[in-house]
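Q: Structure tokens for this one, please.
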Amino acid sequence: MRTVLAAAAAVTLALLPNTAQAAESYPDPQTITGQQIIHDPTVIALKGDQGYVAYSTGGVIGARLSKDRVHWTDEGNAFAAPPSWWYEYNATGDPWAPDISYRDGRYWLYYAVSSWGTNHSAIGVATSPSGLPGTWTDHGKVFTSETTDTWNAIDPAVVRAGGRLWMSFGSYWTGIRMVELDPRTGRAVPGATVHHLATRPDAPYAVEGPAIVKHGRYYYLLASYDACCSGVNSTYKIRVGRSTSVTGPYADKDGTSLLEGGGSLLLAGHGRFIGTGGESVFKDKGRDVLAYHYYDADDNGTPKLGLNDIRWAKDGWPAL
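A: Here is the predicted structure, written as tokens:
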């Protein structure tokens, strides 16, 4: 009887949906309180033990603050009003997918302005002495794309490598791209090569939202694959590849190039945490932390903030 029951249980488990099995494979996000609603989060630990700030898609770049990384408050928007040039790219002046970083004594906030379903898009930048909402000065466009281009200038993520400054970006079209930035102006170097980092073999090339983090001798490219923005029907998941050069080529754990559809799965939906993606990585007390959004199946698919510490395995690959 034990043998029969064990065999039946094994068959039943094999037939369960992937989401049911995945609950054992992926950790839940850190418990947070207060204002949990967010989309496409970028987070930074402020200098001088001033706590944390998160910016996101929604509003005029939605802002959240926390003293302890647990309790978050809604602090309105990064800007009081949209800069006028945003309206060149959508009728409501609605920015997407910001990226915050700190260098040369200032905080830098990159963000995208576009409309759904087009690559008539732009990435802009603003600076602030404190990183807090209401203190940002906008500096306009740093890189754009048009319908004649084979890439989409949204979802920026900035990284320093080898004494140079780089910005990865991209959404659908031909996937993830990268350009070099002038560290003085924060804008793309005139005539800069547009490097190709990741794509899918099939249209619509559903990969977007890159983030790059350095660990050891490798650069790790994280990206969101499949579909977001559909609540509990979202299929977003985070995949990763690595390279010894920031401009690639990137490959996954099996050695498959991210330009050929590769990408090792880092985080997928499980339990109530659906459509995990829109990710970024920040440093906190010397550790790397993954920030992302998920759609809460227990709250009508509301997008919420997910935070997980990254653990680097002996083989160099990240786990949560």
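A few notes: Residues 186 and 203 are 32 Å apart (CA to CA). The longest strand covers residues 273-284.
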